[in-house]
Amino acid sequence: MQDRRILHASHLFASLILLAGTSLAATNPYESNVIVWGNQKVLTRPVVAVSAGFMNSTALQDDGTVVQWGNNWNDENITPPDLDSIAMVSSGSYHVLGLKKNGTVVAWGANGNGQCDVPKSGGAAKSIAAGSYTSLALREDGSIVVWGDTAQGQGRIPANMGKIVQVAAGVYHVLALNSDGKVFAWGDNPNGQTSVPAGLGKVKAISAGRLHSMALLENGKVVTWGDDYSRRSDPNPAAKDITDTLSSVQAIAAGYGHCLALRTNGTVVAWGGTPQGQTVIPAGLNHVVGIAGGHDHSIAVKDDGAVVAWGWNAWGQATIPAGVNDAKAVAAGFTHLAVLRIDGSVKAWGYSGATNTPILPPKSLKKATQIVAGENFTAALQEDGDVVVWGDTNQAVLTMPTPRGTVKSIAGSRNSVAAILKDGSIVRWVPDWSGSDGLTTASGASTETWKGLALGFESPFALRANGALVAWPDSLIPPSSSVFASVAGGPAHIVALQANGSVVTWGDTMLLHVPTGLGKCRSVAAGQLHSMALLENGTVAAWGYNRQNQTFVPMGLSKVKSIFAGGWTSAAILEDGIVAGIDRERRNGISSIRSVGGHFVEVRDLSGRMIWSGTATWDGKVWSVPSMPRGTWILRAKTESGVEAQIVSLL
Q1: What CATH number has the domain spanning 6-311?
Q2: Residue 62 to residues 84, 448, 477: CA-CA distances in angstroms?
């Protein structure tokens, strides 16, 4: 049997890390020929650690990279650019901590209480814990650092605790375990969650929930205190405490109101909390090596690096974004992602931002040949020529109101779908989820042979066989347009590939900065506010707004066959093989911009080094910085004065 020893860094929403002695199966459960970046991602490597937040989930892959999914209200799923070499992750309500292998702590997500303002001094950390709005680090010297929300006394660290080996954070309370197996607790205590049971000792792991605390003893027993409901498998006050009979436990994890225990036989036991399914263990779940509890969902890691999740799934936090090794195409909305597989099936993750419900393909979907996505819906063209649309309100499934079997190809945008019919006509529909057929006919028809279709500015753009571009209305095409090979569109811009391999764009002025010296390209793609190009050498370039890292192309990405952009997401499918060998080396990119006294602007790189400073002019729409270096970088941020700055810089 494989070694399943686990080290737990418990906190409000539990995380885990496998010890060096833990072995994983040699196979990779997430072999993938598609890599995705931006606000949507997929797993491509075996997982060694997981962490669960309020409505999101985080996985640490065996190469030190992080993949996140679920709710993203506060950018808690937007990892810092080129985040790598991570050894541990820990989730609060809306923020995430990462511990790098060199002891550096990084944080991202909500920062209303300063929970992401990691102290710059104090030495390397060996463990981390995230509370609801609080962050903790256990340093190598055994000292504890607390930052963020400390209004409930979380920062009042007791003296004389001895050598601390583990910390855990609840919503408003903190636990610490010393090398002698003794537990200390402080912070908010309305339900007795910091009232450590008298005589408690020989503890080897701790975990903290909202109003309860857990301790794992050296003999494999579990002790809990605090909120009574979190201690029982039955809400009846007369019910027996489940921990009375629980034994042979090797790891524990406290969710918001529920408890998880991993037994030495690789099975999981769960109890407590409100009934959202977080304690209903999936049938046949075994070979588990790690567990984590979120607000109302639970996660487990198996010994082959696969992840299993269950419970509340309103924002897709319990739907694992597993990479696929037979991807044919990718479609991304604002908060969801779909992958078309070679066999015609569709795999999907994420949720509708309008209804907070997962956007998953209907079981009735037949073999698909093409997929597109809008803000909160996905559309698939079936092999039989029918188009099916799903998503948004109550997961409605709609069929396009055209004669069945007449659609040849489709294109999607934020709020509409367009199609080339087999007779050469072009139509556009706007999803109407309350109507009888759910769709209303728009405009545009021409009986010709077309070789491309896109939706830009929510209007159809079609490419004739001779490379001429047609749009409805035709005023959307610049007078200087020439012969094109392909075209892609977003709500506010068009990016087109000319027959000579060069790229042109038009529309929103802040999206038109095609990278200098781009070179000859094979294809283009357009997202909500960004563009992509696939170069002849198989590499990828991306530009435009980068608020969610959608233009931070992974370093070393090459041998790309096709590219896709949608919402705030970018994706690439490789020519052959699986995602491997991506160079994670940190590149010199823009990290921050701030306004210092009026319109004097500073731009700094990832290390904090000053890249450029000078006076910027604001005309009410765009920052003008004439003395700044020319080039390809576009940074979108807010200055301290609250004005949104958009600056181009070449590093």
Answers
A1: 2.130.10.30
A2: 11, 52, 48
Intrachain domains 6-311 and 327-574 with the same fold: yes
The whole-angstrom separation of Cα 67 and Cα 148 is: 24
d(CA 582, CA 207): 35
Radius of gyration of the chain measured on its C-alpha atoms: 26
Q: Are 87 and 105 in contact (CB under 8 A)?
A: no
Local confidence band at 242 (pLDDT 50, 70, 90 cut-offs): confident
* Under 8 Å between Cβ of 158 and 115: no
Residue (of 650, 586, 596, 648) closest to 622 by Cα position: 648
What CATH number belongs to 327-574?
2.130.10.30
* CA–CA distance, 333 with 39 (Å, rounded to integer): 10
Q: Are 22 and 289 in contact (CB under 8 A)?
A: yes
CB atoms within 10 A of CB 599: 18
Phi, psi of 143 (to 5 degrees): -80, 155
User: pLDDT (tens digit, 9 = 90+) per residue, 439-493?
Assistant: 344 444 455 689 999 999 888 899 999 999 988 887 788 877 689 999 999 999 9
Structure confidence at residue 343 (pLDDT): 95
pLDDT score, position 603: 53
Domain spans of the chain, in order of start: 6-311, 327-574, 590-649
Residue 154 or 590, more confident? 154
Other CB atoms within a 10 A radius of the CB of residue 121 amount to 5
- 550-601 per-position pLDDT tens digit: 998 887 788 999 999 999 999 999 987 555 433 333 233 333 444 444 455 5
Round to whole Å and give the CA distance between 286 and 493.
Answer: 50
In sequence order, what are the beta bridge partners of 251? 262
Tell whether pTM > 0.90.
no
Task: Dig out the tokens for 190 from the structure.
Answer: 């309305």
Say if CB 629 and CB 515 are below 8 A apart: no
